[in-house]
Design goal:
The structure holds two protein chains of two kinds. Chain A is mainly alpha-helical. Chain A is built from five helices and three strands. Chain B is mainly β. Chain B is 5% helix and 53% strand. Chain B is built from six helices and 87 strands. In chain B, a hairpin with a 4-residue loop joins β83 and β84. Chain B is globular. The two termini of chain B are 17 Å apart. Classes of the chains: A mainly alpha, B mainly beta. Chains A and B meet through α1, α2, β1, β2 and β3 of A and β4, β5, β8, β9 and β12 of B. Chain B: Belongs to the DDB1 family.
């Protein structure tokens, strides 16, 4: 069916994994790209993009090769109309276990800070080796935390 | 209208705000989960594409949607946080197909200033904690314990007050956040903190980066092995980690969304504000980042969220245009784009304005919206009901029945259309010129009325008349056999399929015949006690040519009965109740479920579930379709069977998600319908209506039809002019590369083709703010009046604007008059033959004055000061209702004698208004910017001036949607004699693309539905344990109060989705039968 002399000018229907077709595609690309150069400010950019595209626009992650393999390419100007069913929660598992109803601790963060300082004063000095991060571990209060 | 209002969604939100991909419904399933503000949609990735699974309503506006994998779990959990500070963790139970709430809670603080840049919710990649930034200066932590259970939340003080983004870093031994913030000199920096769960405090993190791009707005954490973070600016992209820093310049753009492509984080898709999709690549060697590269891929809708799905397919969620499923190609197309758009998902949002028109002049409203923004701006024509696209029509009076017949059993297409009249039967057929012409089937009796006709096996046709059944060859068209009714008896009703005929004669005789090759054989005869009113033997079993059951409707005892075939044994007898006889019965099957439909003479339709093996009828439901007798027929469209109910209000009955739905057909009255699938008119219907026979195709079977008219620019105001059959819009076109990035226009569109037919460009900096069509006293012409504002960069509030008066002459906009104003013209109203304008703080009335030279001009008559900004104005008689920027609603009155406008009353609440409407003389409806609805009432009977000067708040409700516009009108055809036809409605349009209806109910109906609503709250619970009562409570910065005098129609109408047990439960609580509840709720669904 394919006449050899016209082979290179024909766009193969599927060529993603076929090394053989790379040469004609590349040359085709360049000829396409030379056209809009007058619009494009940077010729280098175009050339770079060409090289880059080759290397980065492939190997798209595939979790299940079947996904989308049978997608009917409908007319994209028509919008998809499939409407999912509306879910109604009519069971009694809408309430989580009692310990998984979460609230914020009631103690205000300023009070918490004051209590923490008071406790720190009361407790004996910790060994220096406990303080992994010197800036923070130092007894010197951070000005910022006091100025709440 | 009244203060008892019913709020219901006609078109659900379509604005996609969030999306994520993970294994949610099972460890093997890959799901795309989409948030559309108040709804979550769960999709499944399949070989056929994205398969929608569920649409989950959430009682809150979703602020955060994240999937995460807890320790030791095989599938992901969904974390949702709402704008009103609730959160929940959901798990899918695939065995029961239920969403289970793992955890929930309230994360609000009593004191705190809500963040300006929106709420941030993030989950540590190692699942040690959930972080929330909800209030300035606070970072809330919900820790996980080692079993994956959540513990009590606590706050940590965050020094940075102007936070732009926060993300968790990957690969840190302690949970570490990176904060992108702006300092008080407007410089932007990034800083890291470790979260110390023990001390409930931050510890300085491993690195910080000062003085980033001034437009830096987005952080992308990079997963292992690279780790670190990408900081996306408007002119640069930076990669930062403790030991590396790389930056690249980019073409100036604002990145709105990103999606990670590779699990190792080496490629990202970025979507910018112009809809350009780019690929950001991190180049690396030996787990060290060596550089960044960015490549444009092509154009999509302006993305609000991007999710890489699988195998180069990507979901683009959009707030400004349709969302899309795209494929990334390895080779560019002719335009150099690597992006191929494969599917579009309609998004009406943001609906900035809309109008209600009756373009087809059928007495039914259509909504035309200004939808979308920037380049994705469009007009959308939204219509309820199913349209018939007329292909051919002929005048024919007195049609009593119609059937289509094929010329041979194997023929794919119908050839003949048999039309029966009171005293004759005519046969139409397609001729070679594809015209319908009269023909003859010799074997048929054409001098009498036909009762039924059908194709039969062995290339035969059946005709039943009052005296006989005739079997005719479809090839020779000659009579092959005939069965005669016993003398003295005439056949009253008959039905047939390909192998069977069932007929009834006077005296209650039921006769069953079978069709053979040239043979009509009487198999069985039964005598019933009463006359028979209707029959059906539509095959719904495995054999498409043969039915094992017959449905029979009876006079006198008003029942419907199921008989077995061929022995005509009575299996089931179902009394229908009441005094209205059944006029049409139909056996049918939808989505594998068998039903018996029974239509009564008063326009009611009963449906039953039919057990085909026992003949048992269950789950009786009753709906009112119209007021006249109904005739039921099946037809198929796109390989699916539907039922057409011909009556004064024609309806298509179809099934979606195993639930019967009723959709109006946009025709006034249909007496008969039969499918007519001819070669020239494939998949068509023949419809007898009002002395006319029409052949037409039917729209897709769904409730709302949306037609898109892409504009490529942003339409902001729309108005229809009946007289010139045009629309006028105020629009703006963005052209980022030009010196003037925005140009504003007034455009005229043909109301049929929606083509631009004339354009009036506005001045530089001049915005079109409002447009109306109106006429003036002493001038018969109709004009478009446009209000504008000069939005100068140096002004806080416009100090100059114009009112432009256009006439449509020869399809062109002709400027007739213009008037300069001292501010922005936010609103215009036709008012007593004059023009009422809202200009900044002022309401100003202009009269239309004839000058000596014969031209007209607008002349100021009087005005009223005293608003912050008068944004929305509605009028009724001499009353003017003003919606203020921040001072709620006030009521003004125009005094003719004094030529003055005075304030009569106001609502003293500080509501920031987004729309107002007048419901009736005394009741006004408002929407405000905390997504609430409220009604106020004029207090004319107040004892004191002070009392009369107050608008009393009578209704409050949290809609959860930002309403831009109210309009009186209806999406459905209103029949004056139906109960629903008496209910006045207002339509609204919102930012999320919701079209909703507010219906004012009579008090007794309101009370009844309120009871139903509170019973439903106990049966249909909020997903994630969120409370419906709290969700619907009116809430803004100032107060939160329980909803009153508004009902949630969405909750009430979900009654119809319940299974029978749950319906019974509700029915017992309300004290009304299920059948009655179904009927009343079904009627409400017909409001939209």
């Amino acid at each position: 069916m394919v006449v050899p002399s016209t082979f290179y000018s024909q766009q193969p229907p599927f060529c993603a994994h076929n090394q053989f077709h790379h040469i004609p595609e590349r040359s085709q690309l360049i000829s396409q790209i030379t056209l809009p150069i007058s619009h494009s400010s940077n010729f280098l950019e175009v050339c770079c993009s060409l090289c880059l595209m080759d290397s980065v626009l492939g190997n798209w992650p595939s979790y299940d090769p079947h996904n989308f393999s049978q997608l009917r390419t409908s007319d994209p100007s028509r919008s998809s109309k499939m409407a999912p069913a509306t879910y109604h929660s009519i069971h009694n598992r809408d309430v989580p276990p009692a310990d998984q109803v979460i609230n914020t601790e009631h103690k205000n963060i300023l009070l918490r800070e004051i209590y923490r300082r008071a406790e720190e004063k009361l407790t004996p000095k910790r060994a220096a080796s406990d303080n992994l991060i010197p800036e923070h571990g130092s007894k010197q209060p951070r000005v910022s935390t006091l100025s709440f | 209208m009244s203060i008892w209002n019913y709020v219901v969604t006609a078109h659900k939100p379509t604005n996609v705000t969030h999306s994520c991909v993970g294994n949610f419904t099972s460890p093997q399933d890959l799901n795309l989960i989409i948030a559309k503000c108040t709804r979550v949609e769960i999709h499944l990735l399949t070989p056929q594409g994205l398969q929608p699974m569920l649409d989950v309503p959430i009682y809150g506006r979703i602020a955060t949607l994240e999937l995460f994998r807890s320790h030791g779990e095989a599938q992901d959990f969904l974390f949702i946080a709402t704008e009103r500070y609730k959160f929940c963790v959901l798990q899918w139970d695939s065995e029961t197909s239920e969403l289970v709430t793992r955890a929930m809670g309230d994360v609000s603080d009593r004191i705190g200033r809500a963040t300006d840049n929106g709420q941030i919710g993030i989950i540590d990649p190692d699942c040690r904690l959930i972080g929330l930034h909800l209030y300035d200066g606070l970072f809330k932590v919900i820790p996980f314990d080692n079993r994956g259970q959540l513990k009590e939340a606590f706050n940590i003080r965050l020094e940075e007050l102007q936070v732009l983004d926060i993300k968790f870093l990957y690969g840190c031994s302690k949970p570490t956040i990176v904060v992108l913030y702006q300092d008080n000199k407007d410089a932007r920096h990034a800083k890291t903190y470790e979260v110390s769960l023990k001390d409930k405090d931050f510890v300085e993190g491993p690195w910080s980066q000062n003085n980033l791009d001034n437009g830096a707005d987005l952080l992308i954490p990079v997963p292992p092995p690279l780790c670190g973070v990408l900081i996306i600016g408007e002119e640069t992209i930076v990669y930062c980690s403790a030991n590396a820093f790389k930056a690249i310049p980019i073409r100036p753009s604002i990145t709105k969304a990103y999606g990670r492509v590779d699990p190792d984080g080496s490629r990202y898709l970025l979507g910018d504000h112009t809809g350009l999709l780019s690929l950001l690549v991190i180049t690396h060697e030996k787990e060290k980042v060596t550089g960044l590269k960015i490549e444009p891929l092509g154009e999509t809708s302006i993305a609000s969220t991007i999710s890489y799905l699988d195998n180069a397919f990507v979901y683009i969620g959009s707030s400004y245009g349709d969302s899309q499923l795209i494929k990334l190609n390895q080779q560019p197309d002719a335009k150099g784009s690597y992006v191929e758009v494969l599917e579009r998902y309609v998004n009406l949002g943001p609906i900035v304005d809309f109008c209600v028109v009756d373009l087809e002049r059928q007495g039914q409203g259509q909504v035309v919206t200004c939808s979308g923004a920037y380049k994705d701006g469009s007009l959308r024509v939204v219509r309820n009901g199913i349209g018939i696209n007329e292909q051919a029509s002929v005048e024919l009076q007195g049609i009593k029945g119609m059937w289509s017949l094929r010329s041979s059993t194997d023929d794919l297409f119908d050839t003949f259309l048999v039309v029966s009249f009171i005293s004759e039967t005519r046969i139409l057929a397609m001729n070679l010129e594809d015209e319908l012409e009269e023909t003859e089937i010799e074997g048929f009796c054409s001098q009498v009325q036909s009762l039924s006709c059908h194709d039969a096996v062995h290339n035969q046709l059946v005709q039943v008349t009052s005296s006989s059944v005739r079997l005719v060859s479809s090839t020779t068209r000659e009579l092959r056999n005939e069965w005669h009714a016993p003398s003295g008896y005439s056949i009253n009703v008959a039905t047939a399929n390909a192998t069977q005929v069932l007929l009834a004669t006077g005296g209650g005789h039921l006769v069953y015949l079978e069709i053979g090759d040239g043979i009509l054989q009487e198999i069985k005869h039964a005598q019933l006690e009463y006359e028979i009113s209707c029959l059906d033997i539509n095959p719904i079993g495995e054999n498409p040519n043969h039915s094992n059951l017959a449905a029979v409707g009876m006079w006198t005892d008003i029942s419907v009965r199921i008989f077995s075939l061929p022995d005509l044994n009575l299996i089931t007898k179902e009394p229908l109740g009441g005094e209205i006889i059944p006029r049409s019965v139909l056996l049918c099957a939808f989505e594998g479920i068998s039903y018996l439909l029974c239509a009564l003479g008063d326009g009611h339709l009963l449906n039953f579930l039919l057990n085909t093996s026992t003949g048992e009828l269950t789950d009786r439901k009753k709906v009112s379709l119209g007021t006249q007798p109904i005739t039921l027929r099946t037809f198929s469209s796109k390989n699916t069977t539907h039922v057409f109910a011909a009556s004064d209000r024609p309806t298509v009955i179809y099934s979606s998600n195993k639930k019967l739905l009723y959709s109006n057909v946009n025709l006034k009255e249909v007496s008969h319908m039969c499918p007519f699938n001819s070669a020239a008119f494939p998949d068509s219907l023949a419809i007898a209506k009002e002395g006319e026979l029409t052949i037409g195709t039917i729209d897709d079977i769904q409730k709302l039809h949306i037609r898109s008219i892409p504009l490529g620019e942003h339409a902001r105001r729309i108005c229809h002019q009946e007289q010139s059959r045009t629309f006028a819009i105020c629009s703006l076109k963005y052209n980022p590369s030009a010196e003037e990035p925005e140009t504003h226009f007034v455009r005229l569109l043909d109301d049929q083709t929606f083509e631009f037919i004339s354009t009036y460009p506005l001045d530089t900096y001049e915005y079109g703010c409002f447009i109306i069509s109106c006429s003036f006293s002493d001038d018969s012409n109709v004009y478009y009046c446009v209000g504008t504002a000069y939005v100068l960069p140096e002004e806080n509030e416009p100090s100059k604007g114009r009112i432009l008066v256009f006439a449509v002459e020869d399809g062109k906009l002709q400027l007739i008059a213009e008037k300069e104003t001292k501010g922005a013209v936010y609103c215009l109203n036709a008012f007593n033959g004059k023009l009422l304008a809202a200009i900044n703080q002022k309401i100003q009335l202009y009269k239309w004055v004839l000058r000596d030279d014969g031209t007209h001009e607008l002349q100021s008559e009087c005005g009223h000061h005293g608003h912050i900004l008068a944004l929305y104005v509605q009028t009724r008689g001499d009353f003017i209702v003003v919606g203020d920027l921040m001072k709620s609603i006030s009521l003004l009155i125009y005094k003719h004698e004094e030529g003055a406008i005075e304030e009569r009353a106001r609502d003293y609440n500080a509501n920031w208004m987004s729309a107002v409407e007048i419901l009736d003389d005394d009741i006004y409806l408002g929407a405000e910017n905390s997504f609430n609805l409220f009604t106020v009432r004029k207090n004319s009977e107040g004892a004191t001036d002070e009392e009369r000067g107050r608008l009393e708040v009578v209704g409050e409700y949290h809609l959860g949607e930002f309403i831009n516009r109210f309009r009186h009108g209806s999406l459905v055809m209103r029949l004056p004699d139906s109960e629903v036809g008496q209910i006045p409605t207002v339509i609204f349009g919102t930012i999320n693309g919701v079209i909703g209806v507010i219906a004012s109910l009579p008090h007794d109906q309101y009370v009844f539905l309120e009871k139903l609503q509170s019973s439903l709250r106990k049966v249909i619970k909020g997903v994630g344990g969120l409370s419906h009562e709290q969700w619907r409570s009116f809430s803004n910065d100032k107060k939160t109060v329980e909803a009153r005098n508004f009902l949630d129609g969405d909750l009430i109408e979900s009654f119809l989705d319940l299974n029978r047990n749950k319906m019974d439960e509700v029915s017992q609580a309300v004290g009304v039968s299920v059948e009655e509840l179904c009927k009343r709720v079904e009627e409400l669904t017909r409001l939209h």
